[in-house]
Amino acid sequence: MITDAQARGAASREWLDRIRLSRPDSEGRVLISTAAGPVARVPGLIGGILHAVKRDPVAESRLIGARCGVTAEQVEAALGAVAAMPAVADAPARLRWVQFRAPFTVQFTFFDPSRVIRPDGLLCRLVRVRGFWPVVIVLDLVGAAVVAMHWALSTSPLHSGISIAGYGWLMVGMLASMFAHEFGHAVVLTAYGGRSPRMGFMLFYLAPAFFCDVRDNWSIAREKRVRVALAGVAAQGVIAAVTGAVAFLVPREAGVALATVAFFNVAYWAINLIPFVKLDGYVALAGYLDRPNLRDSSIAAFRARASRMLLGGPRVDDGITRRWVAFGAVCFLFPSVLVIGVLLALSMNLSALGTAGDGVILLAIGILVVWTATRGWSGLKSSWSAGLSRWRAVASWSAIGAAVAAIALLLPLPVNAIAGVYVRDGQAQLATLSVTHVGELAGTEVTVHEPGMVLGRRIGVATVTGGFAPCEIPLSAAFPVSGSPYRLDGWCAPLDAAVVRAVSETRDDAGAVVLRLGTRAPVQWVAEIWGAAFTS
């Protein structure tokens, strides 16, 4: 029978259901995690108390203390200290199926991989084989080398278009690769004794991707954490090696899809190793250093020092060295740089699509502006209510606002657009679906490349000899599509005869051009896109 005192004790310990405890590490410490991620690593004595209470949540503090060699008061003090942690007090019992992760990630949970991955299953047993990882490393290197060959060889299927139906298979291959990446994390974590409770789809800095919850990674040994963190890129390296090699052996249409999948996997692999955002490279670094909150603590240290310099805040002795403060500064700034890079890439690839492309770009810019304004307003309110000098706060935030305005008005951003080239009635034509951003190009030299999923070798240089006029463009001149009879309404400008023969000899009778349109200040660039979206 459970006594009334035990029932009251159980009720007061309901927060224990919201935390997960790791096994003690080599120094006896225990990591506390919630559904949102790791919270703190506590000494072995406190970890032992928490483990004892988790095993018997209705036990009186006196009995728990006797088992752990401490007093009842010490048990209550330890429980009270952990329960008071904001990350524990505010933690949900389980994550909702839709989650927003600051600064630019939305996650949609689809299923629990622990229901299909068994520790004694074939994949998990294979991961534990002694020679498994050396073989994977060799295959990853082969994958990178094969993709480099595709990039360098002008005859590679990577530098060709693909049929409309082929795009469907290409999308399947890319999605399967991303799923394999995340599933690889779950398999390796399970093989080493952990558990992955959820997988799903997410928008990561505006880009579609899958995700896998590996917070249980902190319950396993350090070197195994690194393997779990890098399991995804390892899986994609193997996929790149297989698809890239087979692409040379199969018919051209299938080869284009396979070569593009190989290129995508290596690019995804390289981006995932960036350690300044919460991608695999960062998770591996934090796991190797045994610092669960490395990025957050480094950013907090940078912000504390920046606040002290700008607002006159108190000196903080947090034990963070200058090296990690610098790391925190890069982590703090890098998301903005990443999003700006994504916006410029979107602009280059979508601006030629007219109003629809401009709308997508404006939506992405709007999200960035709202997020920046929200963060700025939050920082302003915090500094205003922190008891610091009001005049210094006003002066500092005014200086920050002036710096942001100067960047918006003066920072030169490179503006590019992609256009096509085709031959009509013996005359080479520069073709685009929209001329709003392109402007007048008469007299401009353009470099023409072989079209493809990735631009191929240079096939010539031509000069634009006239202005744009309405025309019908072959689909292959607007997109890397082969074998399509469709034509689109667009705009064409005549080129001189220098590339007529070279373009006519390409597989799809088309070429591709990256138009270098100079630089624009951010405000000017956004104004042009706004005007194009609402005047075209």
UniProtKB/TrEMBL annotation:
Molecular function as annotated in GO: metalloendopeptidase activity
Name of this protein: Peptide zinc metalloprotease protein
A GO CC term assigned to this protein in UniProt: cytoplasm
Organism taxonomic ancestry: Bacteria, Bacillati, Actinomycetota, Actinomycetes, Micrococcales
The keyword Chaperone is assigned to this record: no
Stretches that traverse the bilayer: 132-152, 164-192, 228-250, 256-277, 324-346, 352-373, 394-415
Organism: Microbacterium stercoris
Keywords: Membrane, Transmembrane, Transmembrane helix
GO annotation terms (biological process): membrane protein intracellular domain proteolysis
InterPro entries linked to this entry: MBTPS2
